[in-house]
Here is the input.
Amino acid sequence: MAMLLLCASKLPAQPAATELPPSQYSSTMRAAFNQPAAFPMVSSPPSPQYRPVGEWVGRLILPTEAQYQQVYQDIQETDWAWLEVTVAPPAAQNWIGKMVRLAWSSDPEVQSYVRLATRDVQFTPEVLSSVARGNIHPERLDGRSQVGPLQSLAGGRPFDDVTVVLSGTVQPEPGDFTAANAALAIPTTAATLRIRREPIQETGRFYALVKFLEPVPPEPPAQLPEQCPGESPCASEFMRVQHYNPATRQFDGPTEIIRIPQQPPDWIGVFNMTTRDLATSAAGEAGWYIYGAADAAGRFTVQAMQPRLLLQLSPQQITGFRRGLRYINFENWKNTPARKGTIQSVLVTPETSSAQTDGSASWTIGERALVLHLFGGRGGTQPTAESAVLGTYTGHFSFGVAEVIRDPFTEELRWQVDYVQIYARNVEGILSGDTTWANYMGNLQRGWMGTRPVSDVLVRLDALTQDYDFGGIPLSPLDELLNDLHLMAARYRIGDGTGGATVTPATSCVQDSAQALFATIRRVQNQVNANPQILAWLQQHPDDPTSRRFQQLVRLGRDLESQLTPMGVVRPDWASNTEILTGVPSNRAFISNDQLNWRNLAAMLLSWRTALPRQVHDELSMIFLRYGGQLWFLRTNQIGGYDPDIAPIAPTLIMGEWTLPFTQIPLLSWFVQRLFGSLTIPNGSDWRLTLAALLGFAAIALPLGYSRGFLVWRPWVAPWYCQLGWLGLLLLSALLQSLLFRVLPIPYPKGWVPELTWWGWAMIALGLQVLMYGSTRWLRPRYAPIFTHPVFLVLITLLGWSCTVVYRLTGSLWTITCVHWLVLSVWMLLLGGKSQLDEASDRVALPREPRFSSRAIP
Here is the structure.
């Protein structure tokens, strides 16, 4: 302990919680039970019913600048942090309670990642202003040079309170555990733990599986919390629990009284959790995993919780493809306020026939799934309750990874869910990077479990989530995505050198998570194309299951890239950053759109499908389902204790809160999305399809029109500016009709929209367009002989059909407008259309038969 005190005296000074600007973090850090000093160091769990949260667990501590400089001078190592070891493997128990260096492996790939993630940090005036408003920025890193991922994680908050689990291969290098070592008098002999991947943020040291029985009144009663949600008196912080018994597979093990401290309110009066009615919560019917440590009195104090029901491999509902699409679009967030306090788990399979009564039957230990994470809002009756703006509540999106593990308590298979958060700076002190469910969701101080509704989609798609072996050459698309996310998260923690990652129209959790996915697609393509051995193996084994799976991955990559670049143009910052993320040598800095300012809106428009978390969450889910993926939805709705002052708010699509009366149909939102979707810029292939459609239309329309006398060669003789004016009017007409009868009424042509549904709406829209012309009999009688003529109606139907097919194939407003405009222009200016309209206008009475033949079509 003397060594720790000596070391602490040389570490960077940390402010008192009362010195920080008002925020959720500063409010809750004032509570003694939220400070690391509240939990003495121990070498074993509190009782046999508890297990360590990991093999190597510790608290990160930021070294001083002088310490970094001395280590660099002695052993040329730039990125490392102190780790106060709280849990160690049996063979390294003497490391517990010691301060050791946590450093990176010397492997070239690891060192390449460290170099890409390292930046000098200098706060901008905007970041200093953000700090004054209460957002938590890495203030202790301001002015430091060469800040790497471990340093940014250790210094991400004002206090040394980041607990981590070391994952993957950990290489201990024994050394001195002395005060001199802590002061770096002999850095070359310092005890060191070397890692290959970023530590995972965790909460607590030990965990157990328990059932809450009843709250226990404190003695004396005055020890009840003074503040809590709802009416007084507050619920007790002490809870009698019963541990899970592996022998009986029931909750009939030893009982114990634990403490679940009531968190203080934040600076706007919101409580992050409560123990009120916790023992009777529907979410806890299968028990709770509790995370924490024993306090100075030896009582286990809960720092995080996780409901067992959510993680079991037994979905409450299993559905097939068609109903799965409906679940994604309508039912996942249906009646969100009424579902407060509950959990739902739904398995969506690509084929109804493959849905099994036991959802765990097709999952095996070690299998991984990609996680799509989305949370909604915290509404309620408080004055500070969140609400939708212009009918839109954005929420938050991130990726993660889930793995099927064997539960150490029950021996059953269950999910282990971790996130890779790309998170802007915030008042809670949430850091970007790898984090467990318990730390991000279940943490009582800052987790979202009790205050926000959450949807996690666990995607199992073999083409994406299973590793490849091309004749001895491995490739893992999922690992490549995680690597890109780790780099993005590390750069986010320091704002790429500015000290602040902020939300703009072009940079956000969802935009930059999507950017990492885009970079992964390009990275996998580059790796395969640059490896002759892989290409040769694929050529030699075209029918191998691995080859077929890889071909599916290629098709999926094309669809995902189209989804991420809906305008058909790659954002300049994405293109530049992708070169960095994929390892292309470049001296350019990683571009954050905080630097682009006026270009933010334009950049957002180029990737508009990734602008809102709900849209990315839903559309990626539907893409993966279309490619045969299984989707496991895990839904929580402000679970845990009951807070009567808050209510869950569903995240929405743009203007998605405004629905048709008595329905869940967000019609205005659909129109906006369809309009934006149609603005995609056509490529060469799209224009070739458009030209083919025009030639096909001409091949039918010209013979038919000439043979019936409707079309005649009669160019309109008028000054050029008159003709140009008419071309403009015809372009406007073509654009309006394309919007009204193609873009707005028909679902945007994406693969997840069932064919029959799409063509059904297309035929209705086409019928309305023909009906519009037919209605001139009553609305504009003088033009009725032209627009109700059988040949004209056939031609307009043929034109509408051609535009529909072109729209189906290109998804572009510009291609169908071009087709419609060219056809109208040729008819009006060259084939007698303008003359026919002029003659009809000159008549005083109702028009007689026009000069062309009106013989009916046989």
The mean pLDDT is 89. Residues 684-707 form the longest helix (24 residues). DSSP finds 27 helices and 25 strands in the chain. The CA atoms of residues 226 and 232 lie 9 Å apart.
